[in-house]
Amino acid sequence: MLSEYLQPARQSVLLPDEVATLQRIFDQTCCTLGIQKTSAQAEGLAATLVNLYERGVRTEDQLSAMVDKIDFL
């Protein structure tokens, strides 16, 4: 799911372990908030996670805390 939002034209490159971290947070957040992974809310969550990561929010705790505060519904 997250790989759909990683565009080759961007300057930053996410390594496999970074993508795995984002995927883990995505999966956990979807489960916690009851978001279906094929929904528009999941798409927004994935895009938000990638955007936050590219802007320097790097730890799982920071990313989780930030997306937990966003209403994706």
- In DSSP terms (H or I, runs of 4 or more residues), the helix count works out at 3
Q: What's the total count of β strands?
A: 0
User: What amount of the residues lies in strands?
Assistant: under 5%
Secondary-structure element pattern, one letter each: HHH
Roughly what percent helix?
55-70%
Tell me the major beta sheet: none
Write down the overall geometry.
globular
Mean pLDDT metric: 87
For the termini, the CA-CA separation is: 18 Å
The structural class is: mainly alpha
Rg measurement, Å: 11 Å
Which parts are unreliable, with pLDDT below 50 for 5 consecutive residues or more? Answer: none
Offer a concise description of the structure.
This protein is mainly alpha-helical and 73 residues long. Helix content is 58%, strand content 0%.
Provide a descriptive summary of the structure in words:
By secondary structure, this protein is mainly alpha-helical. The protein has a domain at about 20-70. It has helices at about 15-35, 40-55, 60-70. The chain is globular, with a radius of gyration of 11 Å. About 15% of the residues are buried. The model has no long low-confidence stretch (mean pLDDT about 85).
